[in-house]
Amino acid sequence: DSAETSPSVVFENIKRCSPNCLQMLLENLSGLTVDADFTVELIPEINVAVATFIKSIDTKEFVKKCSQDKRVREFKMTARLLELTQTIKAENLPDSISTDYLTVYFESVRSGGGPVSDVQLFPEENSAIITFCDHKGNT
Fold it and tell me: Where is the PARP14 second RRM domain (predicted)?
């Protein structure tokens, strides 16, 4: 299909698999190397990890391979593609941050950004919601 596929795979129900074990498991399944070919971000609050592939792979096939893998099933984990989105939340922002600064920062090609259509600042939470013109600018 011609639709763009996410370079990120979400692993749910990771609590039975330590971070190091998860990284080794993903290396075994993908044949790639953590840090050089992909990154893993743990989100323990919601029992999830996100693997983002720097090296281009067929993530749909990778998800299929994970769902059929004996070890993944033993850990009772599930894998799915991360949905592509046009909106991200930036947290732990300094008090003095402005919407103009955030717009310019997230439009920076150097930081993987793209055209920003909207920035909503939430000073009481030191956070902001950044909306991109398309999903390619939020890597």
Answer: 5-83
Pairwise CA distance, residues 24 & 92, whole Å: 31
Please check whether the domain covering 8-81 is classified as CATH 3.40.50. no
CATH numeric code, 87-132: 3.30.70.330
Going residue by residue through the chain, which has 139 residues, state the pLDDT in tens, using 9 for 90 and above: 335 678 899 999 999 999 999 999 999 999 999 999 999 999 888 899 999 999 999 999 999 999 999 999 999 999 999 987 888 899 999 999 999 999 999 998 776 788 999 999 999 999 999 999 876 555 4
Name the residue with tokens 């902001």.
Answer: 128
Helix, strand or coil for residue 31?
A: coil
CA angle 73, 79, 80 (to 5 degrees): 150
Query: For residue 97, what are the CA distances in angstroms to 75, 81, 94, 102, 126?
Result: 42, 33, 6, 7, 9
User: Strand, coil or helix: what is 130?
Assistant: strand
Give CA–CA dist 79/60, Å, rounded.
Answer: 10
The answer, as to whether pTM is greater than 0.70, is no
